[in-house]
Amino acid sequence: MEDHPVIRAKGVNFYYGKFRALTDISMDFEKNRVTALIGPSGCGKSTLLRLLNRMNDLIDGTRVEGEVLFEGKNIYGPEVDPVEIRRRIGMVFQKPNPFPKSIFNNITYGPRLAGLSDRVELEALVERSLKQAVLWDEVKDILGQSAMMLSGGQQQRLCIARALAMKPDVLLMDEPTSALDPVSTAKIEELIQDLKRDYTIIIVTHNMQQAARISDRTGFFYLGRLIEYSATEKIFTRPDVKQTEDYITGRFG
Amino acid sequence: MALQSSMRWRYFKEGLFFGLVRLSAFVITAALGGLLFYIFFHGLGVISWDFLTLPPTDSMTKGGIMPAILGTVCLTLGAIVIALPLGILSAIYLTEYAKQGRLVRVIRIGVNCLAGVPSIVFGLFGLGLFVVFLQFGPSILSGSLTLGILILPTIIGASEEALKGVPQTFREASLALGVSKWQTIYRIVLPNALPGILTGSILGIGRAAGETAPIMFTAAAFFTAKLPSSIFDEVMALPFHVYVLATAGTHIEATRPIQFGTVLVLVGLVLAVDLVAIVIRGTIRKRKRW
Questions:
Q1: For the domain that residue A215 is a member of, what is the CATH number?
Q2: Which of A196, B122, B144, B163 has the most CB atoms around it within 10 Å of its CB?
Q3: ipTM of the complex
Q4: What is the largest distance, in Å, between two alpha-carbon atoms of chain A?
């Protein structure tokens, strides 16, 4: 299969005020692949992830240089509406963050505001999204109950379902399992494997076994730079750069 | 020996300090209790169905206080209608939209200063702007506007706190779904902040009901048996009625019971409003689960 980059970062620099958090990042994210971003805390991997759907816009005093091409178009171009970008590029956060609404309304919140109002279609969408997130069997009888009643792992799968309901092309995941127990983590990892048939997934993780298990390609970041980026298997068996090897083998980090 | 005496000194200090703290709490409770008791003791006797439903008669030495109750209710409702939307919108601007910097700091200082301005100053300001310049005359409208400005800082403060209390993760979750900022505020932030906004605001509303100085020149009538029919009518008001009876009435001593009865009704009204706030807060605390 030939690789098609869905998102291309080209020479991206990113600043929080005067502090440069990312330096000259250029990397391609391929369609229907899982790309893992790894590196020690503060290395910029989460910053890069949030830059890909313009979530960093929300922070005062930030500045982007370079280009992020999504399907060939720079998402930082002047005529681009970040709201539109975020509909196409969904996001799942580190801590499960369902709304204090019913399970049903958590899923339909986004699509409704995007203009979908037909009850039958909404119900079908809820079922489809929850099935995709492998949560349907657990919640199909309690769709009217508050999402806050669910366990942490269920909440996180609900958040994934909620993101999928927008039918995005790309799913960004910011350490989606770091707040979860091992069983829930395993479920979400399995889920990610299924989802890559339909979606492009970019995941930030602190857990290197996780990156090795679920990703096709891995990028290693250190101090705001992309140190090494290639097939996951290569990164974890014979990395080109000494720093990568040191990090993976636990010699620093 | 020296050790023992130093220990004794320490115990003494401990006991002294604890006693002082307990005394303070006791004094405050006693003061409030005494006040309420005093008002009830002197006022309860005149409270009757007629007192609550009839206008004053015989140069305000007999009859009821119905026009004053109605006037205070009108003025307070008017103040809410004016201050609540304005206050909530300002708070949304300050917490959600404005870039946190010098401008916002200056606005916040301004709001806090407004909260510290003596109420008579609001009264005079209302007289100058609403009654004279805008020619609303002494009326419900002028009084409500003046009271509205008076309670604005309370409402802005309460709303800001409530908005800040909504977890940032809710905003992120909504925005990440491709929902616009305004929709996020309207659908997610505001509904979750509303109970807090209302609780804080109701405390301000209690204050508006009890103020005399701001309505003295802008809305309150010495006496009118006529019930208000439009927002341009002058009205009687509970606090002003007490003030009038106690200082300028024709029979100050003879109307003491009426004065206390009026105060009792006013206190009852404010406490009832506060009670609503407490009940709202209680139900929300139970419902909140983040």
A1: 3.40.50.300
A2: B144
A3: 0.89
A4: 56
Q: Are strands A225-231 and A73-74 parallel, antiparallel or unpaired?
A: unpaired
A100 touches chain B (CB under 8 A): yes
Q: Is residue A215 part of a domain?
A: yes
Instruction: State the Cα–Cα distance between residues B68 and B258, nearest whole angstrom.
Output: 12
Judged by average pLDDT, the poorest of A139-148, B182-191, B226-235 is: B226-235
Q: Which of A65-69, B72-76, B123-127, B233-237 has the lowest mean pLDDT?
A: B233-237
Q: Is the pLDDT of residue A8 over 90?
A: yes
- pLDDT of B287: 65
Minimal Cβ distance to A60: which of B100, B169, B176 = B100
Which residues in chain B touch residue A53, judged by CB atoms under 8 angstroms apart? 176
Token look-up 């890069």 returns A48
Residues of A in contact with B289 (CB under 8 A): 100, 146, 148
A90 touches B: beta carbon within 8 Å: yes
Of A57-66, B56-65, B234-243, the poorest mean pLDDT is in: B56-65
Q: What is the Cα–Cα distance from A184 to A135, expressed in whole angstroms?
A: 11
A169 domain residue, yes or no: yes
Chain B residues close to A99, C-beta within 8 Å: 170, 173-174, 188
- CA of B186, closest CA in chain A: separation in Å? 11
To the nearest whole Å, the CA of B86 is away from the closest chain A CA by: 25
**B193: Cβ contacts below 8 Å, ≥ 6 apart:** B159, B162, B163, B165, B166
Within 182-241 of A, beta carbons closer than 8 Å to B belong to none
Whole-model pTM: value is 0.82
Question: Which domain does A159 fall in, by range?
Answer: 5-248
Predicted confidence at residue A1, as pLDDT, reads 43
When pLDDT is averaged across residues B1-14 and rounded to a whole number, the result is 82
Judging contacts by C-beta atoms under 8 Å, the chain B residues touching residue A90 are 176-177
CB B131 within 8 A of CB B138: yes
Where would I find the H helices in B165-255? 168-176, 181-184, 190-210, 213-216, 238-247
Interface contact A62, partner B, CB < 8 A = no
pLDDT digits (tens, 9 = 90+) for A30-69: 999 999 999 998 899 999 999 999 998 888 889 999 999 9
Best to test chain A binding among B177, B186, B194, B289 (most A CBs inside 10 Å)? B177
Query: Chain A residue closest to B100 (CA)?
Result: A60
Give me the mean pLDDT over the B236-257 stretch.
Answer: 84
Would you call A86 and B187 a contact, using CB atoms and an 8 Å cutoff?
Answer: no
Contact criterion met (CB < 8 Å) for B100 and A114: no
Report how far residue A219's alpha carbon sits from residue B115's, in angstroms, rounded to the nearest whole number: 55
Q: Is B142 exposed, middle or buried (0-12, 13-18, 19+ CB in 10 A)?
A: buried
Q: Which domains does chain B have, with CATH numbers?
A: 50-287 (1.10.3720.10)
The partner residue sitting opposite A97, judged by closest CB among B170, B180, B289, is B170
Smallest Cα–Cα separation from A204: which of A86, A61, A93? A93
CA distance B260 to A198: 76
